[in-house]
Amino acid sequence: MTGGETLRLGILGGTFDPPHYGHLALAETARVQLGLARVLFVPAGDPPHKPGRPLSPAVHRAAMVEAAIADNLAFRLSRVDLDRPGPHYTVDMLALLREMYIGAEFYLLMGSDSLAEFLTWRDPAGIARQVFLAVMERPGWTADVASLEREIPGIRERLIWLDAPRLDISASDLRQRVQVGLPIRYLVPPAVEAYIHDHHLYQGASSSQK
Ligand code: ATP
After folding, report:
1. What share of the chain has pLDDT > 70, as a percent?
2. Of ligand 1's atoms, which has the minimum distance to the CA of residue 12?
3. How far apart, in whole angstroms, are the C-alpha atoms of residue 124 and residue 147?
4. pLDDT at residue 49, as a whole number
5. Is 174 in the pocket of ligand 1 (CB under 6 A)?
6. Following CA atoms 173, 176, 180, 186 in sequence, which dihedral angle do they give, to the nearest 10 degrees?
7. Dihedral pair phi/psi, residue 134, rounded to 5°
8. What DSSP element (H or E) covers 12?
9. pLDDT at 143
10. How far is the CA of 114 from the centre of ligand 1 (A)?
11. Which atom of ligand 1 has the smallest separation from the CA of 110?
């Protein structure tokens, strides 16, 4: 950053169980389209939106994110949600990051599934006040922007649509594929595939507890 310019920061929160090319395409498209200096990948510790499903331990999810982003200098792992007790609400995570990066402009990156469920999040209006929402379309998920706008007047101006192809890759499908022995090559970076293999993740009904 040169003098006087505002640091543009992308934030990609998720469970990353495992991280995959959908996440990386979202982050890279946003980086280029929005001129982001950095994209922070923020693995959730105890996600409030996905109760019920056993999550792989944070140590594995963080390690897989680090492996996935190692070759992109603009991508960083943020431990802001890993190193504090949950529940980890996005609105709190953003407030903490805003204290760490004073004066930066924040772009919260998400797929259209997250935008479609945005009103169920803790304090969505509070989130929209703090950041722009940069959204990548995801197959099967169309957000109802009109009802979002009704609930949170002005949110339309905070929405940015990313110009990326829809990628039908999801972590849940990847876990399922590993469990039944289908390949995940070309759907996740090779280092993530190797990590999953080496640590025997997702191989049994309760293997995510390993
Ligand atoms: P799961 O299948 O376990 O729900 P996921 O693949 O949706 O996981 P998350 O870690 O929950 O991955 O996603 C983090 C963020 O990345 C969310 O905002 C989600 O919408 C977005 N995202 C994940 N996969 C894609 C994709 N293929 N295209 C666009 N956005 C995506």
Report:
1. 92
2. 15
3. 13
4. 52
5. no
6. 40
7. -105, 115
8. strand 8-14
9. 87
10. 8
11. 18
Instruction: Report d(CA 68, CA 192) in Å as an integer.
Output: 6
Look at residue 208 in the predicted model and tell me its pLDDT. Answer: 41
- What length does the chain have? 210
Q: Which candidate, 105, 117, 97, places its Cα nearest to that of 41?
A: 97
Q: Is 8 close to ligand 1, i.e. is its CB under 6 Å away?
A: no
Tokens matching residue 71: 């070759």
Ligand 1 within 6 A of 111 CB? yes
Tokens read off for 191: 């280092």
Q: How does pLDDT run across 48-65, given as a tens digit for each residue?
A: 555 567 889 999 999 999
Q: Would you say the pTM of this structure is higher than 0.85?
A: yes
The pLDDT score that the predictor gives to residue 186 is 98
- Is 169 near ligand 1, meaning CB less than 6 Å away? yes
The CA distance from 57 to 188, in Å, is 19
Residue 206: pLDDT above 70?
A: no
CATH of region 8-205: 3.40.50.620
**Helix 21-34 vs helix 58-69: angle between axes, to the nearest 10 degrees?**
50
Give residue 110 CA to ligand 1 midpoint distance, Å: 7
Task: Assess whether the C-beta atom of 172 lies below 6 angstroms from ligand 1.
Answer: yes
What's 120's DSSP letter? Answer: G
Closest approach atom of ligand 1 to CA 166: 28
15 lines ligand 1 (CB under 6 A): yes
